[in-house]
Design brief:
By secondary structure, this protein is an alpha+beta fold. About 35% of the residues lie in helices and about 20% in strands. Strands 1-2 form a two-stranded antiparallel sheet. It is rod-shaped. The N and C termini lie far apart (about 95 Å).
Length: about 130
């Protein structure tokens, strides 16, 4: 790793040091051996479309985009990328909830009819008989 330091007498200089020296606050100047503080450097890294870090899967590590896409397809994993995707998922969830509610209502109705069938409580249309 390249770290930058500044000698009070000779100015800035760079040194190649092990990554484990990240916390050293100063080193000796190579010219006069004076105590030289480390300079704070800003680093900006921006991922682009070619960057891929890999992913842990049930079968181990996946290190290529094509392997990851294949794994996601095989396991029905969907990556949401925008508002349209999120809206579509919400719509699908709402429709699924309606289907579950319809099925539950039908199941309750069938259970009710089975429980009271033959007791003369429900007419042939499934409506409650009211005894006068």
């Amino acid at each position: 790793m390249i770290y930058s330091y500044e000698c009070p007498d000779h100015g800035a200089f760079d040194q190649i040091r092990p990554l484990s020296d990240w916390n050293l606050d100063w080193v000796a100047c190579p010219t006069c051996e004076a105590k030289s503080p480390r300079l704070v450097e800003l680093c900006a890294i921006q991922a682009d479309s070619l960057w891929h870090f890999g992913a842990k899967t049930k079968g181990g590590e996946v290190n290529s985009r094509s392997q990851l896409e294949r794994y996601e397809k095989e396991n029905n994993i969907v990556t949401l990328s925008g508002q349209n995707d999120r809206d579509a998922i919400r719509k699908m969830a709402a429709e699924g909830k309606k289907d579950l509610d319809r099925k539950a209502k039908k199941d309750r109705r069938e259970a009710f009819e089975k429980a009271i069938s033959g007791q003369g409580i429900v007419n042939s249309f499934g409506e409650m008989k009211i005894d006068d």
